[in-house]
Amino acid sequence: MTFAARVGLLGCLIALTAGCASAEAAATNPHNFAVQSGHFMLDGKPFQIISGEMHYPRIPRAYWRSRLKMAKAMGLNTITTYVFWNVHEPQPGVYDFSGQNDVAEFIREAQEEGLFVLLRPGPYVCAEWDFGGYPSWLLKDHAIVVRSSDPRFMEPATRWLHRLGQELAPLQLANGGPILTVQVENEYGSFGEDHAYMEQIHQVLLDSGFTKSVLYTADGPEQLPKGSLPELPAVINFGQGEAKDGFALLHKLRPDGPFMTGEYWAGWFDHWGEKHETRDGVKQAAELTWMLSQGYSVSLYMFHGGTSFGWLNGANYSGGEYQPDVNSYDYDAALDESGRPTPKYFAFRDVIAKATGQTPNAVPTTPGTQSISSFILTESASLWDNLPKPVISRELKTMEDLDQSFGYILYRTTASADLKGPLTLDGLHDYAQVYVNGKMVGTLDRRLKQKSMPLKLGKGDRLDLLVENSGRINFSLELRGERKGIVGSVKAGETPLHDWEIYPLPMNDTAELRYSEGGCKAAPCFYRSSFAAASAGEAVGDTFLDTKELSKGFVWVNGHPLGRAWSVGPQRTLYLPGSWLKAGVNSIVALDLNSTKAPSVAGLAKPILDGPVK
After folding, report:
1. CATH 2.60.120.260: does it fit domain 395-498?
2. Residue 578 vs residues 288, 345, 367, 588: alpha-carbon distances, Å
3. Which of 93, 105, 180 is nearest to 137 (CA)?
4. Taking a C-beta distance cutoff of 8 angstroms, is the pair 539, 367 a contact?
5. CA nearest 421: which of 497, 500, 502?
6. 53, 263, 287, 379: which is the annotated catalytic residue?
7. Domain boundaries, the chain
8. How would DSSP label each residue in 263-305?
């Protein structure tokens, strides 16, 4: 065995990862990826990256392989993915790289399908994902300044990236893996221009073992001077119609190259209460043709969006408006939410084939979907009958103060005197239902900039404020204070209210609720039932649950948190993967904040993502 091979094997033993075989392969058949003379070079030859982005947490693990095959069949030679800190470190120092979170396996499967990988580890990722991928527990320290050189942030961020390096550094190209590049932070020029902070993140990634791949930054063309580092290649991100101007500016700012769009926005995302977004596939195909003909490297954002399952949707903040995202991340992408090719897929496939002169793999057969007949959720449980033990506090506390990441939080107090209104919730994050003596008297919605309502309280009246975390902001400086619950004060008129019973409601385990067949007497209500699917698994089985009878709430199937339901639209169905269904009996639980009528649910063969908005 050569000295190089012994070094490679020793590195594997130290890392205790599956990279051992990769290191042995690298020692005997080394690859090299670099930037030379303004071009990406693979093993000394010019290499044009033609990539598409997809995210492992947004795709059921059973479907990773089929989605990667679809990427290869469209003509892509590379896959881009973010790494989501908050799914891997749900509590400080507690790491999860198993099952759905096995990002190393996702990357290995990409390699097995003949695809290279562009890795985007952040630690900030944006991605329309809760808190931009940061774990919410960072915000328990009210003095922390996230996304800065603040040691209270850099210490856990450094610890995280070092731990991630143990998983993924062995999968860099020179070690025999498929990782060509590693992004340093993410679009920082749209957030700030602290180059000292960017240098810190750069160094942490090197210290984490990412020394055998090309490190780079990514920003909008105009923001590139703020977010880039002089020693690293810089790529640019932009949308439809912006390619020529974007690359012209990149040539001006970085005349020595390389020239790449790290995100060509091949679609867009949806907000609750706003119209469904689409983009012109014909114009995008023409723009992709132009970029490839110029020799530019491209990564489509997204190639396949998938679903922000559960509570993990993020939110935008623009012009003072809070805009929570829906769960569907269909993104009007080449592959739709459930992994089926769209007309855009075939248009892009033709463009890539003509540009490369290569015939791509045959497009795999797409499994069918199924319909599930309407059924009623007959068992019910009132939230009020299933409250946990409260936390007693004179002052309000946020979810993060109580080690809670998602779900709802209930604030309860009793008026000690007659109080005139209005009721004002200063710092409502994000949506509240207001109850007096158990009766709902109104709602307040951060989306609509609502924070007060007319209300009088008599001495002895019980005030309940049920607050929903609708998704943490993932973009802009506003994310730094994005705690959930009520982050300020509650007043009746000019009188501050104190002495609270606070009930954390993370909604982690609906199985422990006390259900009955007698009907729900007071909303919010949980409803439970079972149903039989026509089939299950990948062959045939995906369906789309129609939530039209749910006003506002959430749905779980077989313990999997699917996502939110909200009558404001535009999303009206929830993607239910066949791989999460059972051939026999399947269980479903739905939460409705407003209705005491047992809802009916059906599985549709096609999604409804463009429903009416309110």
Report:
1. yes
2. 33, 23, 10, 14
3. 93
4. yes
5. 497
6. 263
7. 31-363, 372-381+508-604, 395-498
8. EEE-S---BTTSPPP---HHHHHHHHHHHHHTT-EEEEETSB-
**Which class is domain 372-381+508-604?**
mainly beta
Q: Enumerate helices (H) and strands (E) in the chain, giving the number of each.
A: 11, 33
Whether pLDDT at 537 is above 70:
no
- In the residue annotation, 263 being an active-site residue is answered as yes
Residue 91 is classified by DSSP as B
For the domain 31-363, what is the CATH code? Answer: 3.20.20.80
Tell me, what amino acid is at 469?
N
At 8, which helix (H) or strand (E)?
helix 3-15
Same fold, 372-381+508-604 and 395-498: yes
Nearest to 518 by CA among 379, 375, 376: 379
What is the DSSP-derived secondary structure letter of residue 604? Answer: E
Handedness of CA 40, 41, 46, 52 (dihedral sign): negative
> Beta partners for 358?
none
Q: Is 549 a catalytic residue?
A: no
Q: What φ, ψ does residue 378 adopt, rounded to 5°?
A: -85, -30
* pLDDT over 70 (residue 180): yes
Measured between alpha carbons, how far is 38 from 360 in angstroms, rounded to an integer? 28
Q: How many CB atoms lie within 10 A of CB 231?
A: 8
Angle between helices 20-28 and 3-15 (to 10 degrees): 160
CB contact at 8 A, 452 and 422: yes
Statement: residue 388 has pLDDT above 90: yes
The model's pTM is 0.94
State both tokens at 361.
Answer: 């793999």
477-497 residue pLDDT tens: 999 999 999 999 999 999 999
Please say whether the beta carbons of 341 and 158 come within 8 A. no
Question: Exactly one of 89, 167, 187, 379 is catalytic; which is it?
Answer: 187
State how far Cα 281 lies from the chain centre. Answer: 24
Question: Are the C-beta atoms of residues 52 and 334 closer than 8 Å to each other?
Answer: yes
